[in-house]
Amino acid sequence: MSASNVAPDRALSSGKPTAVDIVFLLSMVGLMALVAFLGRLTFQEGVKTEITKSQAETLVGWMKEASGRRSGEDFQPSACAYKTAGSAEVNLWRPCAHGLLSDKGPLANATNAFTGEPIAFVERCNPSDLATAGRIVADKISSTPPGSAVPIVVGPMADDERIGQKLMIRIAICDKGGYAIRVGETEF
């Protein structure tokens, strides 16, 4: 059989798009619009996370700087000041945390980038509770005795945690999914 004897199965294309071509092109345009929309949403959520992270970095920086000044009589917020060993007063974490968020604290007027509410501390980020998004977590870092298998123990700062003496604190934030993002550690 020669090539000239073979008849084509269908006519050659006229150069115009077929219905299948048009459906394909429209679906590609729709997919590109969807990708652009989802990219914009992801970017906006990332900006919110970075705003929260910046607020937490401000807090860590303030804690580093304030650690040396906590023994002064006019230290603000006073609920975060050192107390001498013989002092009858005991400073606890909860009043200090409120002081950090007050008008005289380093996070005065800070708002949660995800909700627009005032920023707040939580004990833990929780992926099953998305209300923790944009919150700050403060953990206490405690050294274990020499020779221990685990050199440090990290646990949440309880509301009744005594903060009258120096302690190591780890600051983290909760992202949109409720997962913790570590920001820094400092002596306070």
Quick structural overview:
With 188 residues, this protein is of the alpha+beta class. Helices cover 30% and strands 16% of the residues.
Topology:
Elements lengths: L18 H48 L26 H9 L19 E2 L13 E8 L8 E5 L11 E7 L5 E8 L1
Parallel strand pairs: 1-2
Antiparallel strand pairs: 2-3, 2-4, 4-5
Fold and architecture overview:
The chain has 188 residues and is of the alpha+beta class. It has one domain (18-187). 30% of the residues lie in helices and 16% in strands. The chain has helices spanning 19-66, 93-101, and strands at 121-122, 136-143, 152-156, 168-174, 180-187. Strand 2 and strand 3 (152-156) form a beta hairpin. The protein starts with 18 loop residues before the first helix and ends with a strand.
Features:
alpha+beta; 2 helices; 188 residues
- Count all strands and give the number: 5
Q: Give the helices and strands as they follow along the chain.
A: HHEEEEE
Tally of alpha and pi helices: 2
Helix content: 25-40%
**How would a crystallographer describe the biggest sheet?**
5 strands, mixed
Radius of gyration: 29 Å
| Poorly predicted tracts of residues | none
Supply the number of structural domains: 1
- The whole-number mean of residue pLDDT values reads 88
Strand content: 15-25%
Strand pairing plus helix content: what structural class? alpha+beta
Distance between the termini: 92 Å
Shape: elongated
